[in-house]
Description:
The protein is of the alpha/beta class. The protein is 66% helix and 9% strand. The radius of gyration is 49 Å and the shape is rod-shaped. The protein starts with 6 loop residues before the first helix and ends with a helix. 33% of the residues are buried.
Amino acid sequence: MKGILNQDWQSFRSRIDQLVKELHELTKAIGNEELNQTVSDLRNRINEPFMFVIVGEVKAGKSSFINALLATGEEICKVAPSPMTDTIQQILYGETPSELQVNPYLKKIFQPVDILQEIAIVDTPGTNTIIEHHQEITERFIPAADLIVFVFEAKNPYRQSAWDFFDYIKEEWRKKVVFVLQQKDLMSAEDLAVNEQGVRDYALKKGIEHPLVFAVSAKQEQEEQTESSGFSDIREYIQRNITGGQAPYLKLKNNIEISRNINERIRRGLNDREQQYTADIAFRKDIRETLDEQELKSKKQVHILVENLLAAYDKTTHKTERELSGGLSFFSLMRRSVASIFSKQASAKEWLNGLVEKLELNLNNELKSRLNDGVMDIADSIQQMAKMIDFKIRDSHTILKNDHEIFSDIAERRANVLRDLQDTFKRFMNRSESFSDGGLLSNQEKIAPNLVTGSGVAAIGVIFMAITNSVVFDITGGILTTIGVLFAGVSLGINRRRILRGFQDEINKGRDQMEEEVTHKLNTYIQQIKSRIDANFTSFDELLEREAQQIKQLNSQQQSINERLDQVEYDLER
Length: 574
């Protein structure tokens, strides 16, 4: 391992791997499967070891070369006295020794050797066998290889099958390829130099512009004759051009750039999502403000209605009070009592009963007239409240589209919630039950049965009228009953002032009660309708609450990853 792996590079890779892991967690939190898979693939590539593909003739010494190159003191590749089978062996790191037969031509061998966490070996059988089943090599391993090593027997590097294999990988010659003359210890220096040059010449003919040829002896290396074994030169090349130098750093920079691009896509997606959230918050605020404004307008209409009712009440009761005051004088009562004996003129009691009946008639006429006009104004205001909200729901602004690059699922979820809101509110508007409230009616007053089958906002006026009639005429009815009882005790010896004061007390009490109860019941009804309208937004509010939490969390993760990508890139370029 010494002299092959760059320790600084390993440290940077660990930092980038951690960042990509967090980026992967971020894509999981987002829930975008395509993005999640992209980052998963990126993470796998970062952690993939350097791949060395070793090619050569049978008995060229490939396995011995691999064992000597990695210098672990262990037999990474088995050295057999007889030729191995025609199976390609991919040697990888594993916690325990094991083998996996992928297909008849490919076997994965796992060994608990530390260097295999950084370097994976593809050990091939003889090149004549590879040519017969070259697809496993050319499609599976050559495109992903960091280095392709052609191992020749130093005494005879001209066997045709090894060179014929170039015909199957010529499109992959952009990969780094080196030539190794193994078992150089079996040759003289002069003959070795001739074969080295012969390999260079042959490689040039095959189209390799600057062929690299290394002469090595695995036997000398394993016997610790490191100065003459030739392995220091090839290790230096690997360290400088494959596992060290700028090549692996460029690979890391590429990983950083890919991570940054993905993270930037997430940031843009989060910006869209945040804009939609901001628009939805503004929409929701507009709904609440509209409800508040319409509630205030409706309550002003209630105030006007009550003022008009009180004016009609005062006008009618004052007129009755003046008539009562004049009719309760001693001479008036005496005249009525005496006259009733000799004529059809009403007695005092009959006159008082008639006064109560006339007061009832006048109150009914005056109050009903004011109620008809005032209630419809309030009903129009409430109907306007509901219709405005319905319009605003249908006109809500959509930024996050269902085909959004990253957050299409969030856009779809929002669209479903909004669609449900529209459907729910439409049903709400069309049901008279949404606007009725039997709790505000007296026990005697019931809404007509046909109103139940009525349509939504159209029922508001009738409901308002029922509530107001119930309050107003219950109160006035109670006043008139009390006054009738008061008048029943009138005689020639009556205390005029006490009767007038009793009348005024009942009239004032009724006035205050009507003002208080009409205002309270109508305002309560308006508040209830407002609350019912607002309650339609429960699911939408829950969506906004989730969005606030998720956007905050995702933004924090994205920004943290971005800052640390900047830092690791800065450190990498120093």
